[in-house]
Specification:
Layout lengths: L6 H4 L13 H20 L2 H12 L3 H4 L1 H23 L2 H19 L5 H8 L2 H9 L1 H11 L4 H29 L2 H14 L1 H7 L21 H12 L4 H5 L2 H30 L4 H29 L1 H21 L3 H30 L4 H11 L1 H18 L3 H26 L5
C-alpha cells in the first residue's frame, strides 16, 4: 500500500529547472485517455443507449432512463470508498482495475436479454470503471503533479471526455446500424483493453517516483510564494468529519450537483427530444458530436481561465452558457434549434467537470481531493439520480420537454446562487 502524497511531492522546487517536457504532462495525457473511455462509451453515448433500448425492449422512457439512475446511484454510493483508496493507494493500479472493469462491463452488457440484466451491469461494473478512470482519480493525480498550472492541467485532462464524445457516439451509432448493438458493445470492450498499456507506461503516482520534487517554477514569473501557499494547503489532511463540517464543502456540493444534473439529464434525454422532433440516426449523433467539440474547447478554456480569473467568475460563465442553450431548445423546436442549443450548451458542458474537480482541489488540497470528491458524490444523489428519469416522466406525462428545460434552467440558477454565497464565505474575515 502506498503512502499518502507527501509534502515534497506537492511542493515545487525552484532550484530544479525543467529539462524537456515536464513528465506531469504525460500523466495528463494518460488521465485524459481514461476520461475519453468513460466519457465516450458511457456519458456521451447515453442517448444512443436509451434510444436503442427503447426500440429493442419497448419499455416506457421512465424505465429506460433508469440505466442513468443505476449508474448515478452506484457511482455515488461507491465514491467515498473510491476516494479513500485514491488518496491512500496506487492511483496507477486503481485506474488499470477500472479500465478492466469497464471493458468487461461493456462486453457483458452486449449479452443482455432483459432490462434487469442491463440495470445490473449499469449498477456494478460500469460505475466501477467510471469511478476509477474518470474525474476523481484524474483530479487527485494531477493535483499531485501540478500547482501553478493545476487549473489548466485539470481542464486539459477533462478534454479527453469531450474527445470521446466527438469520436465515440458516431462510431457507436455506425456500428449499431451497420452491424448491431451487441457487436458494437463487444468492440467497445476490446478498445478499453487496448488502452491498458497506455495506463501502464504513462501513469505515475507522484513526481518523486521519477526523482522530481514537483512542478517547476516558471522562469521569471516570481510565483514561488503562491506555489508555496498552495503547497501548504496540499499538505493538510482533511478527514471526512472535517469535510462535512466545512461550509465551503456544502456549497461546492450544491454548485457541482446542480450543474451535473443538467449535463447528465440532457445527455440522456436530448436524443429522445430530437426523436420527438423527427430527428433520428446520424443526425442525432451529430448533435452529441457538436456538444463534444464545443465542450472540448470549453474545458481547455475553463482550465486556463480558472488559473487567472478564479472559480467563481468561470462558474457564472458556465451557468450562462447552459441556461442560454436551454432557452434556445425551448424556443426553437426544430433541427436548427437543436444544432444551436447543442453548440451553446456544449461550451457550458465543457466547464462543468473542471470546475467540479478544481473547487475541492483548491480548497482541500492534493492529499484530500479524492476524499472530498468521493464524499461529495453520494450527496449528489437526490439531484443527479432523479434528473434523467424525472425528465423522462415529464416528457411521458406532458408530451413535450418544455417543462424539462425550465427545470434545468432552475438548476443553473441554483448553481449561480451557490457560487455567489461561496464567494462571500471565502472573502469573510472569519473564514479559515
Amino acid at each position: 500500500m502506498s503512502s499518502p502524497p507527501d509534502q515534497r511531492a506537492a511542493s515545487s522546487s525552484a532550484e530544479q529547472p525543467p529539462r524537456g517536457v515536464y513528465p506531469g504532462w504525460w500523466v495528463v495525457c494518460a488521465t485524459a485517455s481514461g476520461q475519453l473511455i468513460q466519457g465516450g462509451f458511457v456519458f456521451w453515448s447515453m442517448g444512443l443507449y436509451t434510444a436503442t433500448f427503447e426500440d429493442v425492449f419497448g419499455a416506457p422512457r421512465a424505465q429506460i432512463n433508469l440505466i442513468e439512475t443505476c449508474l448515478t446511484v452506484a457511482t455515488n454510493l461507491l465514491s467515498p470508498l473510491a476516494g479513500i483508496l485514491i488518496d491512500r493507494w496506487s492511483i496507477r493500479h486503481l485506474m488499470m482495475i477500472g479500465l478492466t472493469a469497464m471493458g468487461l462491463g461493456l462486453m457483458i452488457l452486449s449479452q443482455a436479454g432483459t432490462l434487469l440484466h442491463i440495470w445490473v451491469v449499469w449498477a456494478s461494473l460500469i460505475p466501477l470503471g467510471v469511478l476509477l478512470i474518470g474525474a476523481i482519480p484524474s483530479a487527485a493525480l494531477i493535483s499531485r503533479w501540478f500547482i501553478r498550472r493545476r487549473g489548466l492541467a485539470l481542464g486539459l485532462a477533462a478534454t479527453g471526455s469531450s474527445l470521446g464524445g466527438f469520436l465515440m457516439p458516431p462510431f457507436m451509432t455506425w456500428m449499431f446500424l451497420e452491424w448491431d448493438w451487441r457487436t458494437g458493445l463487444i468492440v467497445a470492450g476490446c478498445i478499453c483493453f487496448a488502452f491498458l498499456p497506455i495506463f501502464y507506461w504513462l501513469l505515475r503516482n507522484h513526481p518523486a517516483d521519477l526523482g522530481l520534487s514537483g512542478e517547476p517554477e516558471a522562469p521569471g514569473r516570481g510565483d514561488a510564494p503562491a506555489m508555496a501557499a498552495t503547497a501548504a494547503v496540499d499538505a493538510r489532511d482533511w478527514g471526512i468529519s472535517d469535510l462535512l463540517k466545512s461550509r465551503i464543502f456544502w456549497l461546492q456540493m450544491i454548485v457541482s450537483g446542480s450543474l451535473l444534473a443538467v449535463t447528465l439529464g440532457m445527455l440522456a434525454n436530448l436524443s429522445l427530444h430530437a426523436k420527438d422532433l423527427g430527428v433520428t440516426g446520424q443526425s442525432t449523433a451529430l448533435l452529441y458530436s457538436i456538444i463534444a467539440v464545443c465542450s472540448f474547447s470549453g474545458k481547455a478554456l475553463t482550465g486556463y481561465l480558472m488559473d487567472r480569473l478564479g472559480i467563481q467568475r468561470c462558474g457564472y460563465l458556465i451557468c450562462l452558457f447552459l441556461s442560454t442553450g436551454l432557452l434556445i431548445l425551448l424556443l426553437v423546436q426544430n433541427f436548427i434549434g437543436l444544432l444551436a442549443g447543442a453548440f451553446v450548451m456544449g461550451l457550458g458542458y465543457g466547464g462543468v467537470v473542471p470546475i467540479w474537480t478544481n473547487m475541492p482541489a483548491r480548497t482541500f488540497g492534493a492529499g484530500s481531493v479524492g476524499r472530498a470528491l468521493g464524499v461529495m458524490n453520494p450527496l449528489h444523489i437526490p439531484i443527479t439520480a432523479t434528473s434523467a428519469p424525472l425528465a423522462g416522466y415529464i416528457s411521458d406525462t406532458t408530451g413535450s420537454y418544455d417543462g424539462v428545460f425550465w427545470l434545468y434552467g432552475g438548476c443553473c440558477a441554483l448553481a449561480a446562487i451557490g457560487l455567489t454565497i461561496m464567494g462571500s464565505v471565502l472573502r469573510s474575515p472569519d473564514h479559515h
